[in-house]
Amino acid sequence: MLEIAIADTSALIALEKLNLLDVLCKIYIEIILPESVINEFGAPTIECYSAKKVESPLVRLLVSDLNLGKGESEVIALASETGIKTIIDDLKARKVAETLGLKVTGTIGVLLRAEKMGFIESAYKKTKELREKGFYVSNELLDNISKFKIST
Q: In terms of Cα–Cα distance, which of 40, 99, 47, 112 is closest to 72?
């Protein structure tokens, strides 16, 4: 079942570092990018994205009161208005999104789903590669992914 997702900058950067940005279009029918995310990342090379201007008062609140980034704040605000799943890596932003009752996944979740759908061989190997490229992945998370095996 293909669905729509709203992606934050960190997930785009991580997937680009792995040369897997295009996997988003295989998993999701559309990736919505708030303007702030496009300003932070640039125009992505994938064809399934659409840009969205976010004019929610929630953005200002999340940025000023909770000290979230503008991109994360726009992703959360847009998701709270639409109910669309978010792809966010930042722990603080994820907790805020979950508190608001939003559906949240991250880069690792995308990798696990890509493996399950047969688009990549191993989410564990890709997560390890991501870590080697300077992205923070805890030992506990890496260990949990190593134990995760897709049943075929």
A: 40
